[in-house]
């Protein structure tokens, strides 16, 4: 749950980060940046700010801004009807991004949210810099966390049906509740 003032502040902060990264968008698009707290009510720790350029039945393009150290919780994109699920390419534009993928190894750079180890099972960590990109096949779990300067990235994908995404953390509620 987020207060409306918190949402506006996060939108403005994310829009500034995106503009600094060279992304071009309208004031209306800035006001439509989705601020997601994943129902956990601690946006700075677990959350994401997402600007959607478009999302058709087949293709989607978004920009995601993560504040310094902010983590987008571990999730996957399950099959929906005949669609095998969202295939997603992440391309970093600014900052450093840590991505967790299935596998062992250890998480050396990211600092997973304290006490929530069981909600972050992907322990193969990838460190991404601007112009690095990675394509995630449908159904593959992943989480991401921004480095100390925050991160801005593109998410290009097949049709996004965010509300149907699976999350490892059973407390996640995908739709953000906003109160005045
Ligand atoms: Zn994803």
Q: Could you provide a short overview of the structure?
A:
The chain is 12% helix and 39% strand. It has two helices and eleven strands; from the N terminus they run E-H-H-E-E-E-E-E-E-E-E-E-E.
Descriptors for this entry?
mainly beta, two-stranded parallel ribbon, nine-stranded antiparallel beta sheet, 180 residues, Jelly Rolls, binds zinc ion
Oligomer classification = single chain
Envelope shape: globular
Give me the Rg, rounded.
Answer: 15 Å
Corresponding CATH architecture: Sandwich
Task: Describe, in plain words, how this protein is organized in 3D.
- The protein has 180 residues and is mainly beta.
- The chain has a single domain, classed as Jelly Rolls.
- Helix content is 12%, strand content 39%.
- The protein has helices spanning 4-20, 27-31; strands at 2-3, 34-36, 48-55, 59-66, 71-76, 88-101, 124-128, 133-136, 142-158, 166-167, 178-179.
- The strands form two sheets. Strands 2, 3, 4, 5, 6, 7, 8, 9 and 10 form a nine-stranded antiparallel sheet that branches. A two-stranded parallel sheet has the order 1-11.
- The radius of gyration is 15 Å and the shape is globular.
- 33% of the residues are buried.
- The model has no long low-confidence stretch (mean pLDDT 95).
Write the layout of secondary structure elements.
Layout: E1 2-3, H1 4-20, H2 27-31, E2 34-36, E3 48-55, E4 59-66, E5 71-76, E6 88-101, E7 124-128, E8 133-136, E9 142-158, E10 166-167, E11 178-179
Parallel strand pairs: 1-11
Antiparallel strand pairs: 2-3, 3-4, 4-9, 5-9, 5-10, 6-7, 6-8, 6-9
Zinc ion (ZN) is lined by residues 75, 77, 88, 142.
């Amino acid at each position: 749950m987020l207060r409306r003032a918190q949402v506006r502040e996060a939108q403005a902060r994310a829009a500034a980060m995106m503009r600094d990264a060279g992304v071009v968008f309208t004031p209306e698009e800035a006001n439509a940046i989705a601020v997601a707290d994943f129902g956990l009510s601690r946006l700075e720790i677990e959350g994401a700010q997402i600007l959607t350029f478009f999302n058709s039945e087949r293709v989607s393009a978004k920009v995601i801004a993560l504040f310094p150290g902010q983590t987008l919780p571990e999730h996957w994109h399950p099959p929906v009807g005949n669609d095998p699920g969202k295939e997603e390419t992440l391309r970093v534009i600014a900052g450093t991004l840590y991505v967790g993928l299935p596998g062992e190894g250890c998480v050396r750079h990211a600092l997973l949210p304290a006490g929530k180890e069981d909600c972050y099972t992907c322990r193969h960590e990838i460190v991404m810099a601007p112009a690095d990109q990675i394509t995630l096949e449908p159904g593959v779990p992943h989480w991401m966390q921004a480095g100390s300067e925050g991160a801005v990235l593109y998410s290009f994908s097949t049709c996004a049906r965010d509300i149907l995404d699976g999350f490892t953390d059973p407390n996640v509620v995908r739709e953000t509740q906003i109160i005045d």
